[in-house]
Amino acid sequence: MKILIPPSEGKSKENTQSLLFGESEPEYSNEIKEILHVLSTSKNEDLIKIYGTSIEKSEILHKENLELFNRKCSYAYERYTGVVYNNFNFKSLDEESKKFAVKNILVTSGFLGLVKLNDLIPNYKLKMNVLRLTNFWKPIFTKKLENENLLIDLLPEIHSKSYESSNTVKIDFKFFRNNKFISAGHNGKAIKGKFIRYIVKNKFENLENILEFNEDGFKWNGKFF
């Protein structure tokens, strides 16, 4: 089983390890170098589209990305911040639960590939929805995940398109308002973090147990929470 989650938009800038990213022997080193080559050949007028911000900020982010292999690292569970990760709260787990999380959780990064929580990673910014990264990673992620008997997909749509599997259970959280169900959206991030924590603390690998989650009024209805 694997639980697939997206990287956080915000990331800690603190580097807790002195090791450089290139020295950490990242699993997807060759693929990352391909992406860096594309980035290095991007024109200035493309940077705003790639990074989604002003040209001044884009140039800073671009320079930092191009230096990726020579940048210091933190563990992924330290680097990724935000509502989902805060509510999951990896650091507060007992050691057995941490081992379960490291074994079973994968972060689908558009830049770094499939990241384990104990992987050493630098600070970076590159979304999955640029440079056709979804298509780039799709055969790679699909191959990596092909032998998993169960994939718990907590990904936004663009990330879900980065792999194919017949053993996927897509997890959505929705509110019932004005006589219809609507996506919990940003407000659903906290409950996603709690859901991940629920699986990890109980070390569930059986779908039936996983779907018994019932918190903050969210309960599985056969299609979504």
Describe it for me?
The mean pLDDT is 96. Helices cover 39% and strands 18% of the residues. The two termini are 20 Å apart. It has a five-stranded mixed sheet with strand order 5-4-1-7-8. It has helices at 29-40, 44-51, 55-66, 76-79, 83-88, 95-104, 133-145, 157-160, 189-202, 207-210; strands at 2-5, 17-20, 72-75, 105-109, 113-115, 120-121, 151-153, 168-170, 174-177, 180-183, 214-215, 218-219. It is an alpha/beta fold and 225 residues long. It has one domain.
The helix count comes to 10
Fraction of residues in H or I helices:
25-40%
Tell me the Rg in angstroms: 18 Å
The quaternary state of the protein chains shown equals single chain
Low-confidence stretches: none
Features:
single chain; 225 residues; alpha/beta; five-stranded mixed beta sheet; three-stranded antiparallel beta sheet; 10 helices; 12 strands
Quick structural gist:
By secondary structure, this protein is α/β, with parallel strands linked by helices. The protein has helices at residues 29-40, 44-51, 55-66, 76-79, 83-88, 95-104, 133-145, 157-160, 189-202, 207-210; strands at residues 2-5, 17-20, 72-75, 105-109, 113-115, 120-121, 151-153, 168-170, 174-177, 180-183, 214-215, 218-219. Helix 2 (44-51) crosses helix 3 (55-66).
What topology does this entry show?
Layout: E1 2-5, E2 17-20, H1 29-40, H2 44-51, H3 55-66, E3 72-75, H4 76-79, H5 83-88, H6 95-104, E4 105-109, E5 113-115, E6 120-121, H7 133-145, E7 151-153, H8 157-160, E8 168-170, E9 174-177, E10 180-183, H9 189-202, H10 207-210, E11 214-215, E12 218-219
Parallel strand pairs: 1-4, 1-7, 7-8
Antiparallel strand pairs: 2-3, 3-6, 4-5, 9-10, 11-12
Helix pairs in contact: 2-3
